[in-house]
Every structure is written in structure tokens, then in C-alpha cells.
Amino acid sequence: MKVRVQFYAQLRDLVGIRELEAELPQGATVRELLEEIYAQKPGLRAHDKSILIGAGLEFVDRDYNLKPGEEIAIMPPVQGG
Hints:
Layout: E1 2-7, H1 9-15, E2 19-23, H2 30-40, E3 52-55, E4 58-60, E5 71-75
Parallel strand pairs: 1-5
Antiparallel strand pairs: 1-2, 3-4, 3-5
């Protein structure tokens, strides 16, 4: 299945792209998606503990099962000011 991944803020600068399309097995989780992304963009792995993952309009955890065609957002931690 394919999912589209969008990167935001400094994470976009770090990976050097705005978005990518990932091909994953049916029933893959966010954790598996992240491992695929880290293989392509190893500099992102250092931020693993702090990044937020969004699917649709909600935040999801690493065990979330992805759906075909889903759009996933990878964001830095939210900061107030």
C-alpha cells in the first residue's frame, strides 16, 4: 500500500523534502513507516523521541495501523510562546 508523508518545520529542512510517498505492506504501522523513512533519511532518527505523528486530523502513536492512501504528517514538538 502507499501512504503520503509530509514533513513540517525544521524536520522538513532536515530531510530536505516537503513530502514523500512510501510503499509499505498492508497493515503496516507508523513504527514500520518511520523505519522506512529513517533508512532513506538517517538524520531524522536523532529526533525520533520528540516527533509527533498525525494521521488525518488527530495525533497517533507508533502502533497505529496505516490505511492505504493515508496522509501522514511528521512534525516537531508543539511549542507555545
